Amino acid sequence: MERHCPSCGKTFSEEGETCPHCGASLTQNKAGEPAQMKEYSSPWDDRDSVGFFRALVDTWTQVMFSPARFFSRMPPEGGLGGPLLYGFIMGEVGFLFTLMWKSMSALVPPFVEQNGFGDYVGEMMGITFLFFASPALVLAALFIFSGVLYVCLLIVGGTQRSFEATFRVVCYASSTDLLDILPCCGWIIGLVWNLVLTVVGIRETHKISTGRAALAVLLPAIVCCGFLSIIFLIALPYIADWFD
After folding, report:
1. Do 153 and 170 meet the contact criterion of CB atoms below 8 Å apart?
2. For the chain, what is the mean pLDDT?
3. Could you tell me the CA-to-CA distances from 177 to 92, 94, 98, 189 in Å, in that order?
4. Closest CA to 87 of 109, 60, 113, 68
5. CA-to-CA dists, residue 241 to 235, 237, 238, angstroms
6. C-alpha dihedral sign at 161, 204, 91, 43
7. Which of 31, 55, 90, 154 is deepest in the core (most CB within 10 A)?
8. Which helix (H) or strand (E) holds 134?
9. For the chain, first and last CA: distance in Å?
10. Which residues pair with 25 in a beta bridge?
């Protein structure tokens, strides 16, 4: 049975008290008319009213510590610009801190003594290039990962929403990039937690099981491991000949 949302005008067949497209309430008020509640949005979507930095902090806190609640209430549509800006800020800050830690490690005497001054200059030139290229790299990473994840969802049969919904999950899950502020172990913690947030976000946004969401998120890694395993098995006889 098709249902109609009085707020956004879209039709859908899902049960529930809120519209799956805009999040508006579908319950009846005392007059018997659909309640016209404000469409739910994340603090970041309300940054014009709550303030830029407060919205940034509140969104980061909710995504990092209450991901199921955040993504279950996040509108799956509403434009790419807002989530893209949020993901860009998180990714750019994390990327710049990564470059800063890398440049500092290149300055320590053991590195210079072991690799020589020429390698040090080459290392710093590479860091400088990445610094200026970082905005383009961060934006490209958000779109590429979203595209790959959406294709994986198509493969496992978990695309209950559009590409935009997947893109929103990827952008907000990039909150973990801020953990790159921590030297040495920050990127490891961020990588693991990013996978968790992405699985939760895909599950809540696309309304699929945790297992299917995890399969979609991990599918690229599974394919790469399988491909490398095949190459290793093919090359194994030649490697054995080298040691004969």
Report:
1. no
2. 80
3. 8, 5, 10, 10
4. 60
5. 10, 6, 5
6. positive
7. 90
8. helix 109-156
9. 71
10. 18
pLDDT score of 25 more than 70: no
Task: Return d(Cα 234, Cα 244) in angstroms, integer.
Answer: 18
Question: How far is the C-alpha of 96 from the C-alpha of 110, rounded, in Å?
Answer: 24
Confidence of residue 37 (pLDDT cuts 50, 70, 90): very low
Cβ neighbors of 33 (< 8 A, separation 6 or more) are none
C-alpha–C-alpha distance, residues 68 and 48, integer Å: 25
Both structure tokens of 197? 């947030």
Are the C-beta atoms of 63 and 173 separated by less than 8 Å? Answer: yes
CA distances from 199 to 27, 63, 119, 131 (A): 30, 12, 40, 30
The domain segmentation of the chain, as residue ranges, is 67-242
Confidence grade of residue 36 (pLDDT, cut at 50, 70, 90): very low
* Sign of the torsion formed by the C-alpha atoms of 77, 82, 85 and 91: negative
**pLDDT at residue 110 tops 60:** no
Check whether 134 has a pLDDT greater than 50: yes
Contact 202, 166 (CB under 8 A): yes
Average pLDDT over residues 31-56: 70
Are 125 and 82 within 8 A, CB to CB?
no
Phi and psi, residue 145, nearest 5°: -65, -40
**Average pLDDT, stretch 130-147?**
93
pLDDT tens-digit readout, 44-100: 888 888 889 999 999 999 999 999 999 988 888 888 999 999 999 999 999 999 888
Place of tokens 């696309």: 206
Helix (H, G, I), strand (E, B) or coil at 206: helix
